[in-house]
């Protein structure tokens, strides 16, 4: 039995609903890769939040529940002209980092912000494809961190 197929492994994915057609590709890529690594799709629970700024608080609540081995936050933050998207991305990532340091639950990020994004089909298609890759990378990172934590547990036992 691998660490990924252990019955106590539960993964939470917190996904922002802005640009859902793009963000959902990350979730699909994560689950496909997770299962190919030996994990179970049923162990991945998805939580929706309105936007990226809501991810850290939701991740904190999930981490404090004690139900999840790791949490993935995913969002697509673009310059909407109201406030700086780089500020939003930095705030979200800082919050996610604080959650994992405060709760000892790994919080992975697939929160991406492009330098330039326009609502045109070629860029939308590019980022849809890119988010599949980011989901796969997040699943790989999740498996690696859970494996590393399992080894630490054995060393500290």
TrEMBL record:
Binding site for 5-amino-6-(D-ribitylamino)uracil: 18, 52-54, 76-78, 109
Name the UniProt record assigns to this protein: 6,7-dimethyl-8-ribityllumazine synthase
Coiled-coil zones: none
Gene name as annotated: ribH
InterPro entries: LS, LS/RS, LS/RS_sf
Known catalytic reactions: (2S)-2-hydroxy-3-oxobutyl phosphate + 5-amino-6-(D-ribitylamino)uracil = 6,7-dimethyl-8-(1-D-ribityl)lumazine + phosphate + 2 H2O + H(+)
HAMAP family assigned to the protein according to its UniProt record, in alphabetical order: Lumazine_synth (MF_00178)
Source species: Sinorhizobium alkalisoli
Signal sequence extent: none
Pathway noted in the entry: Cofactor biosynthesis; riboflavin biosynthesis; riboflavin from 2-hydroxy-3-oxobutyl phosphate and 5-amino-6-(D-ribitylamino)uracil: step 1/2
């Amino acid at each position: 039995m691998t660490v990924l197929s252990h019955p106590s492994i539960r993964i939470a994915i917190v996904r922002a609903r802005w640009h859902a057609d793009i963000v959902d590709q990350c979730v699909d890529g994560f689950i496909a890769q997770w299962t190919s690594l030996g994990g179970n799709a049923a162990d991945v629970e998805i939580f929706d939040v309105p936007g990226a700024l809501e991810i850290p608080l939701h991740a904190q609540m999930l981490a404090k529940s004690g139900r999840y081995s790791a949490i993935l936050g995913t969002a697509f933050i673009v310059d909407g002209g109201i406030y700086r998207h780089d500020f939003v991305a930095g705030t979200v990532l800082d919050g996610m980092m604080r959650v994992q340091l405060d709760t000892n639950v790994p919080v992975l990020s697939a929160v991406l912000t492009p330098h330039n994004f326009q609502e045109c089909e070629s860029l939308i298609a590019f980022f849809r494809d890119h988010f599949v890759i980011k989901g796969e990378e997040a699943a790989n990172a999740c498996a690696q961190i859970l494996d590393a934590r399992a080894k630490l547990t054995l060393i500290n036992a």
